[in-house]
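Sequence in, structure out. Go.
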Amino acid sequence: MVLGLVVGTVVATRKEAELTSLKFLLVKPCDSTGKPTTAAPVVAVDAVGAGVGEVVLYASGSSARQTQVTKDRPVDATIMAIVDSVDVDGAAGYQKNPA
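Output:
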């Protein structure tokens, strides 16, 4: 899985029937602090109710088709978790709601 920052939404009114009712988000890979990297963004199916501005974990390839939402559907990236915090070597990295 990869850490990513949701930076936008993708709307497709015409699509393969297997993709009907799926929500698409634009995700940019990010570092452990939640800062986007220079890597290209990906379009990911949202399996957990994520929104723009949230740091998420997403999977790509065959792993993207292992959720109840995406099972046997033609997807290559799926958001599988909304991140609350990241700790690196005992130090706080990203915090969803910093105190």
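Check: The longest strand covers residues 2-10. The chain has a mean pLDDT of 94.
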